[in-house]
Amino acid sequence: MSVYMKEFMSIYCSFIEEYDAYYVCMDNARFLNHSFTPNLRWDNTKKRYTALKDIDIGEELTSNYMEFDKFSKRGEFGFEIK
User: Fold this and answer.
1) Cβ–Cβ contacts within 10 Å for residue 14, how many?
2) Are 22 and 1 in contact (CB under 8 A)?
3) What's this model's pTM, rounded to 2 decimal places?
4) Could you give the angle at the alpha carbon of 79 between the alpha carbons of 76 and 82, nearest 5°?
């Protein structure tokens, strides 16, 4: 594996032990971070994110992964929450 692919995977991929595989998000959700008090919510009817409040320029975009991701629903975020 090339050094560039290893770097890409270290930044954009999560390893899912249950499947012994890496997961990479290829849609715009990769630009969102998790929050238990998000400023965006996924609207399954419209198939898009909707802002829950006015979002300031430069403010981080957040969603609650537990709303849509089966691993997060089980508390398996792939990262440590502090």
Assistant:
1) 15
2) no
3) 0.58
4) 105
Say how far apart CA 66 and CA 76 lie, in whole Å: 10
Cα–Cα distance for residue pair 12/26, rounded to 1 Å: 9
Q: How far apart are CA 70 and CA 4, in angstroms?
A: 29
Per residue, the 3-state secondary structure of the chain, as one string, reads: CCHHHHHHHHHHEEEEHHHCEEEECCCHHHHCEECCCCCEEEECCCCEEEECCCCCCCCCCEECHHHCCHHHHCCCCCCCCC
Residues 68 and 41: beta-carbon distance below 8 Å: no
pLDDT in tens, 31-61: 788 888 999 988 878 888 899 999 999 999 9
Residue 75 has what pLDDT?
Answer: 66
